Amino acid sequence: MMVGKQQPAPPVCRQTREKMQDYLDQTLPKRESLAVFLHVRECGECHGHLAALQVLFEGLDHMPPVAAPDDFDARVLAAVPYETYLAMAPLRSPRVPVLLEHDSLPTWARSRSVRIVGLIAAAAALAAAATGVAAGAAAWTVAAVGCLPELSVRLQSLSRRVYVATVHRSIPR
Ligand SMILES: [Zn+2]
Known about the structure:
The protein is mainly alpha-helical. It has helices at 11-18, 20-25, 30-42, 44-61, 72-79, 82-87, 89-92, 107-110, 112-130, 136-170. The protein folds into two domains: 11-61, no CATH class; 96-170, no CATH class. The protein binds zinc ion.
């Protein structure tokens, strides 16, 4: 099935073969797809490659779906060395939507000092508004902006907890 394995294929052939899977999936841009089509028509070796891939893909398409045995997870885990198992901890922890990941908030917003300074600014603005030192609207704006980092961090952590408690429980494992 492997054609031309003895000698390295010319660059144009290698480029064409790299694109064959996408070509068959019809996900190549039109121009590249045409280039593959034209090259394969001229090049016997690449034509052979494409034909082999086509047979392989058709075979895969017609394979019946295979259900994993019930003890699949247990067997995989039993075969994994303990250190690797520990290193896989992030994979085992429940996945949450990207918005609920810590990293989705900018680092500065998660920084403790920014959150505290924001709250102090907000408190100062509200105090100023209450005593009539600052105009109401401006003070409220400062207060709202000041609370934002702390609020977003808290809201995110709360949503994450709710998500893990509700959605994850309903996913069968
Ligand atoms: Zn070729």
